[in-house]
Each structure stands twice: as structure tokens, then as C-alpha cells.
Design a protein that fits this description.
Length: about 325
């Protein structure tokens, strides 16, 4: 198999550089990279034989593949069309077979070391919520909030933000993936903040919605509804349960209250070396929860012109149920 996506390469070998092919043969495994990464690759990937990529790169890979003399799988979801054409042209005597989801399936179930790193990343976002509670005040722009939050996480030791943070105040909170703008926070605003840290490759992902001042009855009832849906989702997330049922458990709470059309995204996603990975907690996903899976549970209700609420936590599926890894309080909705 030929592996060239960054997360899959890292998962299998430990190598974190930006350019490499893993060539995995029945008896041997090679890491082919360019001059810049030779020393790093030898340090990070001791189980792989490091080979320098020559020009054209297909020559180096081709020489290794013909040693395997078997069909070669490639990551059909990720290999670019141009790279595929180069492979066929440069290595005509090898049969390439499309393959998808093989390594992603392995990545869905986390081992103890991975869970440890996830816990570290999640601790940072928990502390981020404490920071937000002391920092947030009317007059700040959404952009300022996103920036200060990122600084805070990086000072804690995060290697970077897990994604571009979502800070959505006022009616903009009805945009599930709003980009922070120069809008200034006002008393009475709903404010949704979705953020995460990367620690040694592993991502955290947390959403909290706040309101400045005393919430209106409608704001509070939406908040309570989303929380109730999230609790139903978390309770349903047991080992052996199809992810579609978990999505349903949370979604039906929101539908029963007439807000089904305002919850248009799936309930959650796996998180690990990538911010979004399998299993996806959605009606369409055929996966079944297994111990070791780490997923977000993040229902939301978004009402155009009014605002939105989302609450997101990360859980670890265990042999007996699940553990909520994120500890940031959810009752402290009012700032
Ligand atoms: Zn999120
Ligand atoms: Zn998420």
C-alpha cells in the first residue's frame, strides 16, 4: 500500500513532515521523503526504512514497489488525480488498486496513548472556557475574542489551534460555522464560541454558548433544549449502538419541540489526528460505537434573524458506557 495523507502517515509511522510516501509491502515498510526531512524521518519513524526521494519521485517509489511484485493499494480519496497519472505513467508495470477508509478505520478506535494526548488537548479547552468567562465583556469584537483565545491556548502549550475558531455573537450565532467579524459584543447577545487546541497532533473541540446579562425566556428555552438534546445523545452513546441511533436520540428531542429544521447538521464526529474523522454521528453513517472511539456530541438550534445555540463536548466510548472527557461547565450560560 502507498500512503500519502499526512494524518495516516503520522498514525502509522510517527513522521510529522509535510512530504512523504509510505510504501508498505508484505515484508518491509519504507518511508520515502525528500532531503529536508531525512534526519527527522529517521528519528520519528524508527520502524520504517527511510529512503530519499529522487527525481522523478516515481523512480524511487517504483524501485521499491517492483520488489513487492504484488498489486498496490493507494488512497483513492486523497491521492490527487495528477499524482495518480504520474504513478501510472512512471510505474507502468505495477497494478494500482483504489482503496479507501482502511487506515481511517484503524484510527477510529484510540489506544491508551492517543487518549492521553486527547485528554491533554481537551484540558486546554476546558481552561479556555475559564479564560473566556473572565475575559469576555461587551465591546469586544468577535475577532479579538478569537485571537485572545488562541494566544491563551498557545501559552498553555498548544501546538496550534485545532481549526479557525468560530466566534459568533448576536444574530450571527445562527450561522453554525460563522467566521469572526468586527461586530462588537452587546448586552443581551447570544454568543457561540467553538474552538480547540492541537497537542502533539491530537485535536480538541468544544463549543459553549453564552448570553450577556439576563437571558430572555426564548434564549433560555433554546439553551435548555439544546442541552437536553445533548444529554440524550450522550446517554445513547453506548458501545454497540449504531451511530445513527445516537444522532436520532438527540435529534428527536429537538424535533419534538418543533425545531427539527433548525438543526441541519449531524450530531457529532470522531476527533483525533484530524479535527473531523470517523465515525460521524449521523443518520447516514453505518458505524457502530466501539470502546475507544472518541467523538463529539454537538447538537445546535439555529434560528435565522434571532440567533443560535450549540453545546459541544467530547466523549470516550468505554466498555461499559462512556466518559465525558471535556469538563468545562455547562450550567454557566450567563456571563
Ligand atoms: Zn466544534
Ligand atoms: Zn465539532
Amino acid at each position: 500500500m502507498l500512503v500519502n495523507t499526512q494524518e495516516n502517515r503520522r498514525y502509522l509511522s510517527g513522521f510529522t513532515g509535510s512530504n512523504a510516501f509510505l510504501v508498505i509491502l508484505p515484508q518491509r515498510a519504507y518511508l520515502c521523503t525528500d532531503f529536508r526531512y531525512l534526519e527527522q524521518a529517521a528519528l520519528q519513524a524508527p520502524d520504517f526504512e527511510v529512503v530519499q526521494l529522487e527525481r522523478p519521485w516515481t523512480k524511487t517509489i517504483g524501485a521499491l514497489l517492483t520488489r513487492g511484485s504484488c498489486p498496490v493499494a493507494f488512497e483513492s480519496e486523497h491521492l490527487s488525480y495528477d499524482t495518480y497519472v504520474e504513478l501510472l505513467r512512471g510505474i507502468p508495470d505495477v497494478e494500482f488498486r483504489p482503496q479507501k477508509g482502511l487506515i481511517e478505520a484503524l484510527r477510529m478506535v484510540k489506544d491508551a496513548d492517543e487518549v492521553k494526548l486527547l485528554r491533554e488537548a481537551i484540558k486546554m479547552t476546558d481552561r479556555g472556557v475559564d479564560f473566556l468567562r473572565s475575559y469576555l465583556k461587551p465591546g469586544l469584537t468577535d475577532q479579538e475574542v478569537a485571537l485572545e483565545l488562541e494566544f491563551f491556548l498557545r501559552r498553555l502549550g498548544a501546538n496550534g489551534p485545532a481549526f479557525s475558531f468560530i466566534v459568533a455573537s448576536g444574530t450571527r450565532s445562527s450561522l453554525p460555522h460563522a467566521e469572526p467579524t468586527e461586530r462588537r459584543l452587546e448586552v443581551g447577545d447570544l454568543l457561540t464560541i467553538d474552538f480547540g487546541a492541537v497537542y502533539k497532533g491530537y485535536h480538541s473541540d468544544l463549543t459553549r454558548t453564552f448570553v450577556f446579562g439576563e437571558p430572555t425566556a426564548k434564549q433560555r428555552s433554546l439553551y435548555d433544549l439544546v442541552l437536553e438534546a445533548q444529554i440524550a445523545g450522550i446517554e445513547a452513546a453506548q458501545p454497540g449502538v449504531p451511530v445513527a441511533e445516537v444522532d436520532r436520540a438527540a435529534r428527536s428531542v429537538i424535533e419534538q419541540r418543533g425545531h427539527g429544521e433548525h438543526f441541519g447538521h449531524s450530531l457529532g464526529h470522531g476527533v483525533g489526528l484530524a479535527i473531523h474523522e470517523g465515525p460521524h454521528l449521523s443518520a447516514e453513517c453505518p458505524e457502530v460505537l466501539q470502546p475507544g472511539m472518541v467523538v463529539t456530541v454537538e447538537p445546535g438550534v439555529y434560528i435565522p434573524g434571532f440567533g443560535g445555540v450549540r453545546t459541544e463536548d467530547i466523549i470516550l466510548v468505554t466498555t461499559t458506557g462512556n466518559e465525558i472527557l471535556s469538563q468545562a461547565p455547562k450550567h454557566s450560560f450567563i456571563l
